[in-house]
Fold this protein.
Amino acid sequence: MVFQNIRSLREDHDLSQKQVAHLLGIAQTTYSGYEVGAHDYPTEVLLKLADYYQTSVDYLLDRTDDPAPPKRRA
């Protein structure tokens, strides 16, 4: 499944797939596979992306249109 918000965030931050892959500690080809829907995103990758982009996993997965990050638990 292709999640448009993930690609849009990368492009809005003027990042290449290679740069994001480096941030995640994975190969560019692996990241590309996630972005085009050939592979599912592992939970760890989704959490890292949400933290990096300061948004929620729900936003990354197109489950909400609100990019605001969730409030942290105390």
